[in-house]
Amino acid sequence: MSVKKQFIKTKPVCKVTFSVEAKEASNASVIGDFNNWCPEEGALSKLKNGTFKGVFNVDKGASYEFKYVIDGVFVNDDEADSFKWNEFAGAENSVLEV
Questions:
Q1: How far apart (Å, rounded) are the C-alpha atoms in residues 27 and 31?
Q2: pTM of this structure
Q3: Residue boundaries of the structural domains of the chain
Q4: From CA 3, how far away is CA 16, in angstroms rounded?
Q5: 37 and 55 in contact (C-beta within 8 Å)?
Q6: In CATH, what number does 2-97 get?
Q7: Shortest CA distance to 31 belongs to which of 56, 60, 6?
Q8: Residue-wise pLDDT tens digits, 42-85
Q9: Which intervals hold domain Glycoside hydrolase family 13 N-terminal (predicted)?
């Protein structure tokens, strides 16, 4: 799993690329504060090598909680900037700092 950030100098956004290896999975999404936890808005595309990948614009200067949903299973990104306990979910979420 990985998260890559590309800051845009001329805009108040950061292009964030989420990728997760899930060769056996049929679908994957990234959900979080930046897309209202909506799997449809965070759908990732499956590449030939079995990695799911997607690029999203998020506002700079913020912190976002997120998770991956891989075939209906919620998964944290082990390379996240940090982790935060979420009372609503009753579990830790990955955190993205931009």
A1: 13
A2: 0.93
A3: 2-97
A4: 7
A5: no
A6: 2.60.40.10
A7: 56
A8: 999 999 999 999 999 999 999 999 999 999 999 999 999 999 99
A9: 15-72
